[in-house]
Design brief:
- The chain is an alpha+beta fold.
- Helix content is about 25%, strand content about 35%.
- It is built from 14 helices and 31 strands.
- The strands form 6 sheets. Strands 11-10-16-7-8-15-12-13 form an 8-stranded antiparallel β-sheet. A 6-stranded mixed β-sheet has the order 2-3-1-4-5-6, sandwiched between helices.
- The longest helix is centred in the C-terminal third of the chain and has 21 residues.
């Protein structure tokens, strides 16, 4: 165990985490140069294109140190986005140390701080690493000052590297051995292993990623999951070295994988504890909780004939993504579909893109919503995330909406713009403090429903890309909630309904009507697009009809001839409007998703 080091790399998005992982893997030569590719731990196309890590990975790196001893370095990679913070916390619980990666040109940002706090909660040894030192805009002295002042760490220990150019990698490998502590644990004690991730293999079932804290695990053992008491027989254990390397056994302190014929990923819960059935441990490892979705939207196939294919695709996607939840849903406008719960907006986008790319599905997404609590007049509590389930407003005594605590770090010159943005979104400014002489951390409490649309994009644009944002859901608070319906030619389109705050209803309805007017193709009759709360119309746009010039053949003569022709045309239009159907194109639904441009 003295020769093992378990560590993670934590960083803000785009600070070079995947590139540094690549250099560490190359330095230990576990992958031949001809098989190597950039971002080797990022297995999805979306991860490569966007430069983010969505699915965490693990790799076991053999390393011979300067003292001549052979060490095993277990790199437990973590996702970098706030949506996946629970997965990050479980990965960190599996480590003894962490490399805190800071971009030399950007400095400390919001998720650098948030992830550092998570690492400190798990009592990890932190090694600060300043990356991208080869950039012309790199300011190493400023970064060191921020490490001292913002993070309270010793900047003298900070490692200087350029992951892209491979500068400073050998000293960093030595620092992993000398500065990080070895794992603790008793190989002879009853088995206690932490599940920190899992993925699905079409041939072997679920591959469980685990860290052994106490005891030994080998093929043939009968094990029990402590959260749901499921019992399995272990078929294979081993280490991750990009490919799976089977081993005879895994002992205390090691990180590896286990195959036990588990059918679905959702049977293995992130953060759960594994123990032996015959010789169980006393108590599970702390920190386990079920992943809770915070954003909800419905997914429908563009063509009703594709419903079965979409059902199969979601089932396959669920095999690889345990945090996705879905149930059957139906809509008068869009037919049969699924109501899905997501960890956040990025998770929603990733699921949509994977359905379209990996499973070749054309889908329509409804407007995202959050989960509201309604207290009815008879005292019962009702939880809704779908506007279709909104009850009669006269039966509601009080509506409660979820609030988040948002931490925003910006250069102080953008303080006014951030203040305006957050106050416009019904935010409450709780606190702000200077981290350095020109960088500011601002804490706001904002309703989650105000953040899930385009808050992050707006934040980036008003701060010219320098603002960084991190949040956590805190509690439910009273709010004035109304159901906004969109009517097309007097017909309510349930897929476009939204639950909104009363103060926001008019502006949302106006923008939605204007966007739909641009997207709905013109017909032979006028199309009225209306926003309504209950029976009250609050906004309207009209798509004008195609109009034939029926009076063109009248070169003169009596005006009554023209009137007669125009009246005849008007009657025809009225009759057409009564029987005419308006087809809503897919772009119309997508346009309403982007309604928050006010």
């Amino acid at each position: 165990m003295k020769q093992i080091r378990n560590f993670s790399i934590i960083a803000h998005i785009d600070h070079g985490k995947s590139t540094l992982s690549d250099r560490l893997i190359q330095a230990t030569k576990i992958v031949a140069d001809r098989d190597f590719k950039d971002q080797i731990l990022d297995s999805m196309d979306i991860e490569r294109e966007r430069g983010i890590t969505i699915k965490s990975n693990t790799v076991c790196l053999p390393y011979t140190a300067a003292d001549g001893k052979a060490y095993i370095l277990n790199l437990i990679d973590t996702p970098g986005h706030v949506d996946f913070s629970y997965e990050v916390s479980r990965a960190l619980a599996s480590c003894e140390g962490a490399l805190l990666l800071i971009d030399a040109s950007q400095g400390v940002e919001a998720q650098t701080l948030a992830n550092l706090m998570l690492a400190m909660e798990h009592d990890l040894t932190i090694v600060p690493v300043i990356n991208k030192i080869d950039l012309p805009s790199a300011d190493i002295e400023r970064c060191k000052m921020q490490i001292e002042e913002d993070l309270g760490l010793d900047s003298n220990n900070a490692m200087l590297v350029s992951a892209k150019e491979g500068i400073g990698i050998p000293p960093l490998m030595e620092a992993l051995v000398t500065q990080l502590p070895p794992p603790k644990g008793d190989p002879d004690a009853p088995l206690r292993a932490l599940i920190f991730d899992s993925h699905y293999d079409a041939f072997r079932g679920t591959i469980v990623h685990l860290r052994i804290f106490d005891g030994t695990l080998k093929a043939g053992d009968r094990i029990r999951f402590m959260s749901n008491d499921a019992i399995y027989k272990v078929e294979e254990v081993g280490l991750f070295q990009i490919v799976r390397k089977p081993q005879k056994e895994l002992t205390a302190g090691e990180v590896g994988y286990m195959i036990a014929g588990i059918k679905t990923v959702s049977d293995t819960r992130c953060g759960d504890t594994i123990t032996l059935q015959e010789r169980p441990c006393d108590a599970p490892l702390p920190g386990f909780r079920d992943a809770k979705p915070v954003v909800f939207a419905s997914i429908y196939p563009v063509s009703a004939d594709d419903y079965e294919d979409l059902a199969v695709s979601l089932e396959k996607l669920k095999l690889n993504d345990a945090s996705l939840i879905y149930e059957k849903d139906t809509s008068a406008a869009l037919g049969f579909g699924f109501r899905c719960g997501f960890l956040g907006l990025l998770h929603l986008e990733v699921v949509q893109e994977r359905l379209e790319r990996e499973y070749d599905q054309s889908v329509i997404l409804t407007v995202p919503s959050v989960r509201y609590k309604l207290i009815l007049n008879d005292g019962t509590e009702m939880v809704i995330d779908n506007p279709a389930h909104y009850p009669d407003p006269t039966t509601i005594d009080q509506a409660l909406e979820p609030y988040i605590r948002a931490s925003i770090i910006v250069p102080d010159r953008y303080m006014g713009a951030i203040m305006k943005l957050c106050l416009d979104r019904r935010g409450i400014n709780k606190n702000y403090q200077y981290l350095t002489n020109n960088r500011l951390e601002m804490i706001f409490e904002i309703p989650l429903s105000e953040v899930i649309y385009d808050f992050y994009d707006r934040l980036k644009s008003v701060t010219q890309g320098y603002g960084s944002f991190d949040y956590e859901v805190i509690d439910y608070r009273p709010g004035k909630l109304v159901k906004l319906d969109i009517l097309i030619n007097g017909e309510r389109v349930d897929a476009l309904s939204q639950l909104v705050h009363e103060d926001r209803a008019y502006s949302r309805a106006r923008v939605a009507c204007d966007k739909l007017q641009e997207e709905i193709p013109r017909q032979q009759f006028k199309i009225a697009i209306q926003g309504a709360i209950g029976g009250k119309i609050i906004s309207r746009s009209t798509v004008n009809a195609f109009r034939k010039d029926v009076t063109a053949k009248c070169y003169g003569g009596d005006i009554t001839r023209k009137r007669k022709l125009l009246e005849k045309q008007k009657k025809g239009k009225r009759r057409m409007k009564m029987v005419g159907q308006v087809e809503l194109p897919q772009s119309a639904f997508l346009a309403v998703l982007k309604t928050d441009s006010d």
